[in-house]
Amino acid sequence: MFGSCCHCHRPGAAGFIRGFGPRMPAPIRLRELIRTIRTARTQAEEREMIQKECAAIRSSFREEDNTYRCRNVAKLLYMHMLGYPAHFGQLECLKLIASQKFTDKRIGYLGAMLLLDERQDVHLLMTNCIKNDLNHSTQYVQGLALCTLGCMGSSEMCRDLAGEVEKLLKTSNSYLRKKAALCAVHVIRKVPELMEMFLPATKNLLNEKNHGVLHTSVVLLTEMCERSPDMLAHFRKLVPQLVRILKNLIMSGYSPEHDVSGISDPFLQVRILRLLRILGRNDDDSSEAMNDILAQVATNTETSKNVGNAILYETVLTIMDIKSESGLRVLAINILGRFLLNNDKNIRYVALTSLLKTVQTDHNAVQRHRSTIVDCLKDLDVSIKRRAMELSFALVNGNNIRGMMKELLYFLDSCEPEFKADCASGIFLAAEKYAPSKRWHIDTIMRVLTTAGSYVRDDAVPNLIQLITNSVEMHAYTVQRLYKAILGDYSQQPLVQVAAWCIGEYGDLLVSGQCEEEEPIQVTEDEVLDILESVLISNMSTSVTRGYALTAIMKLSTRFTCTVNRIKKVVSIYGSSIDVELQQRAVEYNALFKKYDHMRSALLERMPVMEKVTTNGPTEIVQTNGETDPTPLETKPPPSGPQPTSQANDLLDLLGGNDITPVIPTAPTSKPASAGGELLDLLGDINLTGAPAAAPAPASVPQISQPPFLLDGLSSQPLFNDIATGIPSITAYSKNGLKIEFTFERSNTNPSVTVITIQASNSTELDMTDFVFQAAVPKTFQLQLLSPSSSIVPAFNTGTITQVIKVLNPQKQQLRMRIKLTYNHKGSAMQDLAEVNNFPPQSWQ
User: Fold this and answer.
1) Do the strands 769-778 and 16-17 form a parallel or antiparallel pair, or are they unpaired?
2) Are strands 769-778 and 817-825 parallel, antiparallel or unpaired?
3) If we measure between CA atoms, which residue out of 88, 101, 157, 151 comes closest to residue 126?
4) 391-395: which pairs have CB atoms within 8 A and are 24 or more residues apart?
5) How far apart are CA 562 and CA 635, in angstroms?
6) Taking a C-beta distance cutoff of 8 angstroms, is the pair 387, 356 a contact?
7) Hey, how many other C-beta atoms are within 10 angstroms of the C-beta on 439?
8) Where is this region: Disordered (predicted)?
9) What is the pLDDT of residue 258?
10) Torsion of Cα atoms, 370 then 372 then 375 then 377, to 10°
11) For the residues of 526-576, what is the DSSP string, one character each?
């Protein structure tokens, strides 16, 4: 008809149809494309097919081919879902949206939701089309526009179209109302100040019989309550109506339209329970109104199917979050206890996680499920095993310490290496807090060192040495046990270090065979020196361990009588050691023998009992078990004197040091003197008391001079409440994925002492390493910062760092604190300062 035409030779034209002019051949259908791509045997073959089809689609777009635009965009979306670039189809989506055909609009809106977002300005071109379609005469076109706006609408689009959405929210058409409610949720998230616009439309939403509208209405109300305290107070009057809807759901008969595994609309039930949780939080009247229905849901829901367990889990979370009755809380914990027996690993995991959150507030109820929790330590799933371990430590108290430690020590023997460090640390803390006797305490820690010595924290060695030093009546027993523990096995270096120190201190008791607690062994002086020399030459011994052994040999020169010449020979040999540390020790010890022999016995005499008790974790409770008389709490100010300039003073300057009292850290007090005699504490190489540091004795353990503080010499009764009843926890810091929470305990013997346990968690995708928490308080307080449980805050909230702050507040003044946080994250060093002023009155009054 049109005759010969030059257009038949243009690029991209693939042929000429007689009578209709030049046209491209019809593109293949989407199904054929999918079938073709699936036949590809290699990735390269698939890429070649995609590139060829993309070239044909581009040519069609350039031809402004309206006939097959819809088909080409559909194929492009499929390729986008496979991960191939499809951005060149964005404008074609807008053209389809502007089309009058429903099939074109459907693909156009789908393409817009997949290919466009608010970061690209091209999406603003849709605003007018969406506005027109929101007023379209066909409900399905209106539904497409609502879905698209609710999926990818920017704040500008939401402001422009919020009025249209609000009108559709009041319509009588349930199909549009449910979509409008979800779209309103997106609008509120993007532009919170538009929330009040939707308030009138929410009045009648809960009266709707349609489950879809009910479901989306509850989602909308939840969003509004979470974002505005005023809305939360306004919607609390809806609690009776929500309770009525939930009761109808659980009491109604079989409804095939909404039934899932025999339960009526579990999705709506879960949404209502979540909304009730928000409305009942910190509100007595609302909580009272929903207690009965929560009990009904908890008792009437079928647990044989996973859908029932989902509803029960939401019910438990609601019960634990509102001000529910104690009987209801016990029922919730019993449900979690039943979850622990479920074969599904996910259900067991969420049960353990929930119990871990509630153990502080409902300790006795959780204790009833202790045996089931301990059984979870044997689970094959590592995440369940870790949660069970954390919960087991939270359940340890003075009544069950022996049984729980037996289970946890068995777990320590058989668990994977990644658990050993945390488990060992937890056992140390629990033993320190609840040890029934000093012998049991020493035996437990030695068992840990024997089993997992290579995994314990660095401060385990000085802490055990200090415990042994303070247990005067146990010296002979301890040195004999340690001597037998390292015979022929030097693999556990912390154990060898403690053994070497004890043999050096109490070697005379070992040789004399004075042990009364168990059958004494016959050991000669030469046999003891053989062991220490073996440690010195062992390939498994670290430089630190060799330092312990050489110092121990030197100490024995004043405790042994027949082997002094042998000791001199050993010491002189190491005067030429390639290890500089060992060489310096040996040279100094040689000088003692040759130039200062008259002073040797005085310098190497036995260490006195250490007055200061150091601990290493989230509790600072020392139970003397009736072995010492209770003494009143002493609080002495630090001696006056010039403070040396140090890193600690720099910190205090940062924190506003004019009215701040420094931290008194717990530093390891029982390590042998190093070459420089350095004593490292939490804030730097300083002596916080202001007194001059004592000169390090070359062969004895230096002792940090510190004022008596807080818990020294307290009685054997439990010093703190097992549960911090009535003292709410607070969030002291939350930024960049790092969250610091404070929980509180008050002393039973001295109300002026508050123990604050900090818990640091990390919600980002990478661990935070080298984490250091520092704190300072005004001068009217005394503060002591104990060692943290770890220096790594695990990602995804999979674990926490715990650390204890002890605060003495004799004047009962309002507590204020400044904190400094340093850590490494994503390859960069992070540092932040913050002030904490929202301490609950119960923590200081």
Assistant:
1) unpaired
2) antiparallel
3) 157
4) 391/352, 391/355, 391/356, 391/359, 391/366, 393/426, 393/429, 393/430, 394/356, 394/359, 394/360, 395/359, 395/363, 395/366, 395/367, 395/370
5) 48
6) yes
7) 16
8) 617-649
9) 79
10) -60
11) HHHHHHHHHHHH-TT--HHHHHHHHHHHHHHTTT-SS-HHHHHHHHHHGGG
Mean pLDDT of 67-71: 84
Helix (H, G, I), strand (E, B) or coil at 478: helix
Q: How far apart are CA 283 and CA 233, in angstroms?
A: 10
Cα–Cα distance for residue pair 138/147, rounded to 1 Å: 15
Which tokens go with 723? 């549960």
Helix (H) or strand (E) holding 72: helix 69-81
Query: CA distances (Å), 255 to each of 103, 250, 263, in order?
Result: 34, 11, 9
pLDDT single digits (tens) 309-349: 999 999 999 998 888 888 888 999 999 999 989 888 999 99
At residue 470, what are phi and psi to the nearest 5 degrees? Answer: -75, -15
Threshold 0.90, pTM exceeds:
no
Q: Which residue's entry shows tokens 């984490």?
A: 771
Q: Are the C-beta atoms of residues 711 and 753 closer than 8 Å to each other?
A: yes
Q: Other C-beta atoms within 10 Å of 284: how many?
A: 10
Report the candidate in 438, 426, 442, 446 with the shortest Cα–Cα distance to residue 497: 446
DSSP summary character for residue 814: P
Lowest pLDDT segment from 148-157, 477-486, 681-690, 763-772: 681-690
Length of the chain counted residue by residue: 845
417-429 pLDDT, tens digit each: 888 888 998 998 8
Q: Which of 464, 445, 467 is nearest to 624 (CA)?
A: 467
Token pair 């820690």 in the structure block, residue: 445
529-550 tens-digit pLDDT: 988 999 888 888 889 999 999 9
Alpha carbons within 13 A on the beta-carbon side of 757: 22
Residue 100: CB partners within 8 Å, gap ≥ 6?
none
Q: What does each C-alpha distance from 539 to 483, 490, 545, 546, 583 come to in angstroms?
A: 19, 9, 11, 10, 18
Q: Which two tokens stand for residue 148?
A: 């698209």
* Residue pLDDT, tens place only, 698-730: 333 333 333 334 334 333 344 444 444 578 889
Any bridge partners for residue 831, and if so which? 822
Place of tokens 């002979």: 476
Task: Output the six-digit token pair for 646.
Answer: 């140090």
Distance CA 486, CA 459 (A): 20
How are beta strands 828-836 and 817-825 bridged, if at all?
A: antiparallel
CB-based burial label for 32 (10 Å; 0-12, 13-18, 19+): exposed
Which of 766, 745, 767, 757 is CA-nearest to residue 788? 757
CA–CA dist 297, 400 (Å, integer): 34
Instruction: Give, as one character, the DSSP assignment of residue 27.
Output: P
Over 80: is that where the pLDDT of 528 sits?
yes
The b/e string for 560-587 (b: 16+ C-beta within 10 A; e otherwise) is beebeebbbebbeebbebeeeebebbbb
Q: Which residues pair with 834 in a beta bridge?
A: 819
Q: What span, in angstroms and rounded, lies between the C-alpha atoms of 480 and 442?
A: 12
3-class secondary-structure state, position 827:
coil
Q: What is the mean pLDDT of residues 267-282?
A: 92
Average pLDDT over residues 33-62: 88
Asked if residue 649 has pLDDT above 60, the reply is: no
The Cα 808–Cα 133 span in angstroms is 68
Helix (H, G, I), strand (E, B) or coil at 774: strand
Give the pLDDT of residue 253: 65
Q: Is the pLDDT of residue 650 over 50?
A: no
Q: Where are the beta strands (DSSP E) in 487-624?
A: none
Tokens of 618: 């989230």
Give the integer Cα–Cα distance in Å for 409 and 396.
13
Enumerate long-range contacts of 326-333, CB under 8 Å, 24 or more apart: 328/291, 328/294, 328/295, 328/298, 329/358, 329/362, 329/365, 330/362, 330/365, 331/295, 331/298, 331/299, 332/298, 333/358, 333/362, 333/365, 333/366, 333/368, 333/369
Supply 129's token pair: 């089309």
- pLDDT mean over 157-181: 90
Give the start-end residues of each E strand in 648-765.
660-661, 730-735, 738-746, 753-762
Pair 483, 523: CB distance under 8 Å: yes
